[in-house]
Design brief:
It comes from Salinimicrobium oceani. This is Lipoprotein. This protein is an all-alpha fold and 192 residues long. It has one domain. It is built from ten helices and no strands. The protein is globular.
Amino acid sequence: MKKTLLIIITVFITACGSTKMKTDRIIDEKFKLCSDIKYDRLITVFYPDEEKRLITENIHSLFENSLLKQGHLTDISKAGYSNLLGKIKRGEVGEESTKKFSQELSFNPVSLFPDSYFTSCYAELIEELELVNEQSWQYQFRDAYWKFEAEGDLNSDNVNQVEKALQLIPAEKFKEIAYRKLFLDLIYMHLR
């Protein structure tokens, strides 16, 4: 009897964990699809040049690489980004970093770094698809980021709010560029 009960409990726990992993994977897929579609629209409208397609499709990763080469970003992690945001607030990183990046590319990519463009993907997960609720990190992140936008910018004391939003993203998710794009947009637009 105890063995049977133990087997039933084990199966139930495994099934629940498996369902959560599948749900997380679906949420990630939907978020990335939303991000990719929005970005593809930007490229099509502002940079339709097929010769630069590989560059424009990977602009965030390339900007991140440039920040690493320039020594402004020390690590592709939440800690690295937190450190970079602090440097920006203290004025240690300025417009020269985006100018150098534009020179590396041989064109000005400003239209590929829209303010808050990707927050709508969080809204889609929450409001349209109803895949996440108020307890999810995505919901809490969206609200924290919106509060940051409403109350200031990286030069204000409100930078703590964007730091709070950054810390809400799980470290495993932050390893994916899709979850860093919003911060790279914010950083690029602030520095230019």
